[in-house]
Design the sequence.
């Protein structure tokens, strides 16, 4: 499969790494069919990744509040698109759920790329991206229910905190 973008071509299969997030008593938690582990979905050659994730999450869990692709990376022969999917608390039901723990990300002092990427780092990156968007993108801010802005405030990337 070749994914065409405005300025790139990517060879290989495409997978969606889905992190289902919900707000539980003011704190963020991970849940989903795999519990707090990422949910991996195959994306067909002619499919739009956001539409696939929205459709599958909707069928398996219920209609998501927000589906947002936050990053991509290569893993062996595949391209992995990471998604943060926000759901309403009523959809969690009996799925296992775990509070999200903050992790450190590489800073500008890093001289080389990390040898491995833990999924907790991918979640941290995704939530930082979402925290920035809730401040900068009125569509995202309007989609997220009350409480999300305050739950994400500590995830705003350091350079943008002074702008808030």
Sequence:
């Amino acid at each position: 499969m070749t994914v065409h973008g405005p300025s790139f071509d990517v060879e290989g299969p495409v997978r969606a790494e889905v992190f289902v997030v919900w707000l539980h008593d003011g704190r963020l938690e991970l849940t989903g069919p795999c519990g707090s582990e990422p949910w991996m979905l195959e994306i067909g050659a002619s499919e739009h990744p956001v539409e696939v994730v929205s459709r599958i999450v909707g069928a398996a869990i219920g209609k998501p509040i927000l589906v947002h692709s936050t990053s991509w990376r290569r893993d062996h022969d595949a391209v992995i698109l990471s998604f943060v999917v926000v759901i309403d608390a009523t959809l969690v039901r009996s799925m296992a759920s775990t509070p999200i723990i903050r992790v450190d990300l590489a800073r500008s002092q890093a001289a080389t790329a990390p040898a491995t990427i833990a999924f907790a780092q991918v979640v941290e990156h995704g939530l930082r991206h979402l925290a920035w968007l809730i401040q900068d993108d009125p569509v995202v801010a309007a989609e997220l229910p009350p409480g999300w802005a305050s739950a994400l405030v500590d995830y705003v990337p350091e350079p943008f905190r002074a702008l808030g």
